[in-house]
Design goal:
8 helices, 64% helix, mainly alpha, single chain, globular
């Protein structure tokens, strides 16, 4: 069978779709970890560890966040498994149905986050409703990916893909130089796409989340520098008792500060009266 066979062409399309889903999973986990209070919505293994740390009284992650994420993930996976199985038995298109359900849940999570926190810079939020919706969507994804069953591309984790890729390279180290069969190339493409997809998605998810975190830090820094003292408007920060004193002055609708220079003190002794 030639490399351009319909079977290999179909597998290549599946690999492309699963790669895009893997990138999305990496971005989801980056955003959830950086903006939802150190919780993973796709990587269930991380949440199990966080939950164990919290129950043991170690770390700074409360029990509720990983518990909500794990429960929602399990619920999404269970419901999706039942629904997709029934759709498949009736001859319906179950794969697009799973993707649409996941997309709807992610959109609902985004709308809820915007309604509660707006578009401004936010620090890590303990928003369990958003965490539950995103983890529910990733549970649906898990069942969908299992039913598609593309070897080496679970879309939600990369440990197995890393191990399989390393084992294949060590077994056939010269295959990349002297040529591989179409199936070998496809297998290595799957494993590489899984690892690279998780990494690339994490980078893409870190960009907006990192910008929001830097914006929040800058806002807090500006607030510290212009924090009001004594109930008045903000004034430049400085150590008490050093430098000039500041007097608030209002120019139209804007408050500013004018330095009050201390009066000159004469060091010459004055004659007693």
């Amino acid at each position: 069978m030639s490399d351009a066979s319909p079977v290999l062409a179909t597998d290549a399309r599946r690999v492309a779709v699963m790669t895009a889903l893997t990138v999305l999973a990496g971005a989801v986990d980056a955003v959830s970890f950086l903006t939802m209070g150190k919780v993973f919505c796709a990587l269930a293994t991380g949440n199990v560890l966080f939950l164990s740390f919290a129950l043991a009284g170690e770390g700074d992650v409360p029990v509720a966040r990983p518990a909500v994420a794990i429960g929602a993930f399990m619920a999404g996976a269970a419901v999706a498994d039942v629904v997709l199985k029934r759709l498949a038995e009736r001859g319906r298109r179950w794969f697009p149905a799973g993707l649409v359900c996941e997309a709807v849940l992610l959109v609902c999570a985004g709308v809820l986050a915007l309604a509660r926190h707006g578009t401004g810079p936010v620090a890590a939020q303990d928003d369990r409703g958003v965490v539950a919706l995103v983890a529910l969507a990733m549970g649906v994804r898990a069942s969908t990916a299992l039913r598609v069953h593309v070897p080496g591309m679970p879309t939600l984790l990369s440990q197995t893909a890393i191990a399989e890729l390393l084992n294949d390279v060590l077994r056939r180290p010269r295959a990349a130089l002297y040529g591989m069969t179409a199936k070998q190339r496809l297998a290595r493409t799957r494993w590489t796409a899984t690892v690279g997809g998780i990494f690339g998605g994490g980078v893409l998810g870190t960009l907006p989340a990192g910008a929001a975190g830097h914006g929040a830090s800058a806002a807090r820094h500006r607030g510290d520098r212009t924090a009001p003292r004594g109930g008045g408007p903000g004034r430049p920060a400085g150590r008490e008792g050093t430098g000039p004193r500041w007097r608030p002055v209002r120019l139209g609708r804007v408050w500013c500060h004018r330095a009050i220079r201390p009066a000159a003190v004469s060091l010459e002794p004055q004659a007693s009266k």
